[in-house]
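In the current project phase, we have settled on a layout for protein records. One protein thus recorded is set out beneath this paragraph:
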Amino acid sequence: QVRVVESGGGLVQAGGSLRLSCAASGSFFSINGMGWYRQAPGKQRELVADITSGGSTDYADSVKGRFTLSRDNAENTVYLQMNSLKPEDTAVYYCTLTNYNTKTRYWGQGTQVTVSS
């Protein structure tokens, strides 16, 4: 059983910063990807950023230069540092772990990020 647990959401003013954390536990392949998706009210869920176990990252154009994703493989944890936050970043943020050998993606419960103008 794989478990993905997020923390660190909250309310922040525009221009501020937040850091999200996500820890994965259970049995999964060491070669995997972890990342963050978000879903704003009335919108589809979208990829924010992801990172492979080798450290390769990918970011949505809307967050490039503002968000930084990092991971600690020993702890199976990823961190999303979000700077210069904008009201349009308001969404529920979901952490994922993708098991590359089974092509299975596991989702966390989500954490709310609200950016006030």
Summary: Residues 67 and 82 are 4 Å apart (CA to CA). The mean pLDDT is 96.
